[in-house]
Amino acid sequence: MDKETQNTALRTVIITIFLTGFVAAIYGFGIYLFSVILTDMKDDIGFSYTEAGFITGLAQISFLVFALCGGVISAKIGGGKTLIGSVFFSGIILLSIGHMNSIYTIGAALVMLGGMAASGYVPIVDILSRFINYQSRGKVMGLISSGTSYGVFLNGIIVPAFILDDGWREIWSVVGIITIIWVVGAFIIFYRFGIFDKNTVGYESSNEPKKQSIENGNVFSWSLVLICTLTFLNGFCVMPFQNFLAPFLREELGYTVTSASQVWSVIGFSGMMAGFLVGALADRIGTRSTLIMTYAFLAASSMLVLWHPSTGVMWLAAILFAFAFYPIFGLVPSYISKRYSAKRATTIFAIANVTLGIGGMVGNTAGGWLKTFTGTFSWVYVGVAIAALLACIITIALQPESQPERIEERSPEIDVAAS
Q: What are phi and psi of 206, to 5 degrees?
């Protein structure tokens, strides 16, 4: 391995680490932290699960609005600047929640966090397309998408200690400080690597497939319809699964705060490995086959939650969910980055995130309503299992991502005309 190759590999590792940390902050320390301590905040401030479901639904609306904004802003000023700004503002919001005393102000803060999560996640595809080699994008994006797991894992460690001692307010301050420190470090690294220059390409791109020829220059295609349908189902499935898991464990199944947090820690710990392993598998067998596997895991996890005969089975459900949830959010952008050029990939991923937000909004709102109407969270997990199986079927119709050797067989005239 020559020195240039070693430098490229080292840069890839460093970028991946910082992007993974960003995802941990904007997701793991955001709406998912709210889900873990929802019961304690509700008991302290006083609000209903219908209100909680409505807030998380609004957060998803904010997500879809800022997904479009993030795509537009990223195209104008670059993905690096958009990402840094979004995560820094997230850190400020996290710090402020611990000082709020009204569910309405907390709800507004959570809605803004949902927006920052979208505007921070969309530009990652731009950075991925410009600084990560084609052959490694499945593994890298799989690890980045697992960033939430690191946040969730830390939640499982931090929450019991603070809930029993200082209360839920201190938790928000701690994660806010961690986020801001991480942003400062990333700013220095991104500046040195030239990530803030939106025209920089940080790797040799001679073998990069000419992806613009795939859809004949038309962004709005059948492939986009399928991608958006899948991202809608992604939001519809995983958002309510996570948001209502802790209340389901503690209020309906009788788990203590420590036991419920352990289940979250299992999800987080498993997710640390899940994204990379499943992403590496996708680089070998293709994204479609891997997506089908993850949706099957999600359906199985939902059924085990409903069965819940023992803590061991619940831990198995947590592991299966981790191997579905974290990879799903990496496989879709990895697929997009392999089929489209950097500019088009960012636009398409922004559109896909809108449908992801709509799916999450529908899932969260419906989940809160179902709990209020039926008195149980069980129907939420029935719906998740059915939707996950539907996603398996839809994925079969998804076109395989482009292969370099196949694209290179096209004539130069076709490639130029298509581009």
A: -65, -30
User: What is the rounded CA–CA span in Å between residue 345 and residue 395?
Assistant: 19
What does the pLDDT read at residue 61?
75
**Domains in the chain: boundaries:** 3-199+212-418
Q: At what angle do helices 222-243 and 311-339 cross, to 10 degrees?
A: 150
CA distance to 387, 389, 396, per residue, from 392 (Å): 9, 5, 7
**Claim: this prediction has a pTM higher than 0.85:** no
CA 327 from chain centre, in angstroms, equals 9
Burial label for 180, CB within 10 Å (0-12, 13-18, 19+), is middle
Distance CA 109, CA 378 (A): 29
Class of domain 3-199+212-418: mainly alpha
Does 226 have pLDDT greater than 90?
Answer: no
Cα torsion 213, 217, 222, 227 to 10°: value is 80
User: 407 near 210, Cβ under 8 Å?
Assistant: yes
